[in-house]
């Protein structure tokens, strides 16, 4: 039996258990969206988030094509529509180009780029049927200017930017707007991971990243979630294939 | 002591009497801001001043008056400009070239110079310059306009870098062809054949540019020297 479509716009956010995805789900819910949240598995945080915002938790690996069609089917079964896709989940492993094993290299491309490509393929037919959609791909400043020891991550994120531009040109006539956001240094749980990798304190990690930012300030998850909300909301209706960089000028100006 | 006590955010908007400037003023006012409009003609703002943005002293006087009245200037939007097209590069006269640069680049410069002391003293502020997608993508038969709008981008990026370590942010919005009085009824930018080349298949609405400006003014603290492009896909 077909589900009656939700009267509210429906957004899907991947990688929503923590950090930027979590903040984005909360922001979109506050802006009036019904939000379905995904992460690779649910250790309780995803269900808690979904419960808090009255949404739907759909765990699944972005790199798994079946999981992506299942995710889309679950959203359609639950809400009968999908208006906004926020492709945020990401895998990152730092390592020198010649030393990183191919499996680690390709896993990042598989999750960040190919997995989200398949998710886009799964949701676009529903957006096309509604003649409305917003696709927001979370790229990275490293996808714009590159970064040492992050070739796979940078390549995958640069690929997302190109994917957004191509999708934008192809889908805008159908009412589906695709854009990218390229954050750089955001104050998330990832900073502790980066600090641990370098064997330094979290404060020292923050200090080192601030030095790379012309404004000297790390972005917050709320800053980036605000960019997503702008592109997903009424104000974003003339943005087609653009890349927003709420990043303190990291890729634009020299420190 | 100021007339409004400084409890409500305030914006200075040039070119506020029509088009993008007027739509921006209307949106800011709807959201509770006080607005000062600088334009050759009267604008529908809280403090309309009829002045020419090429007149540095007049701009400074209008901005200082707005700051005194509102107690603060949180945002400055430089939308003043005009458009001429259909002129071959060799046909652009020296007066046409100088006038275009004086209004678009000079007006932006004069406005920045007038608002910055207030913003730096207050420890907050957002300057948003209206450029054009033509400055990113290039164009033909309107070279003086495109050069002036491109110069604005250079000004924005450099001023943003210069002010990066202050709380004042400087960014640009580069709209696509927008449905304003600058596009005359028989403008080539209104022709169906041109619109069909845009991914969005239509002109940008001034309200969409205003929404982008408002986003930068209210949630844009991490943008530094960026160019936001509500352009219907004209330049990707």
Describe what this molecule looks like in 3D.
With 255 residues, chain A is of the alpha/beta class. Chain A contains nine helices and seven strands; from the N terminus they run E-H-E-H-E-H-E-H-E-H-H-E-H-H-H-E. Chain A has helices at residues 19-30, 45-53, 65-79, 102-130, 142-145, 151-171, 190-198, 202-211, 221-232, and strands at 10-14, 34-38, 56-57, 84-87, 133-138, 176-181, 243-244. Chain A has a seven-stranded parallel sheet with strand order 3-2-1-4-5-6-7, with helices on both faces. In chain A, strand 2 (34-38), helix 2 (45-53) and strand 3 (56-57) form a beta-alpha-beta unit. The longest helix of chain A is centred in the middle third of the chain and has 29 residues, at 102-130. The relative contact order of chain A is 0.14. Chain B is 42% helix and 14% strand. A seven-stranded parallel sheet of chain B has the order 3-2-1-4-5-6-7, with helices on both faces. The model of chain B has no long low-confidence stretch (mean pLDDT 96). Classes of the chains: A alpha/beta (255), B alpha/beta (236). Chains A and B meet through helix 6 and helix 9 of A and helix 5 and helix 7 of B.
- The portion of residues forming beta strands of chain A comes to 5-15%
Quaternary form: heterodimer
Low-confidence spans of chain B: none
Report Rg of chain B.
17 Å
Tally of extended strands of chain B? Answer: 7
Spatial strand order of the main sheet of chain A: 3-2-1-4-5-6-7
Q: Give the neighbour order of strands across the main sheet of chain B.
A: 3-2-1-4-5-6-7
Biggest sheet record of chain B: 7 strands, parallel
| H-E order of chain A | EHEHEHEHEHHEHHHE
In DSSP terms (H or I, runs of 4 or more residues), the helix count of chain B works out at 7
Uncertain regions spanning at least 5 consecutive residues of chain A: none
Q: Provide mean pLDDT of chain A, rounded.
A: 96
What can be said about the biggest beta sheet of chain A? Answer: 7 strands, parallel
Please count the beta strands of chain A (DSSP E, at least 2 residues each).
7
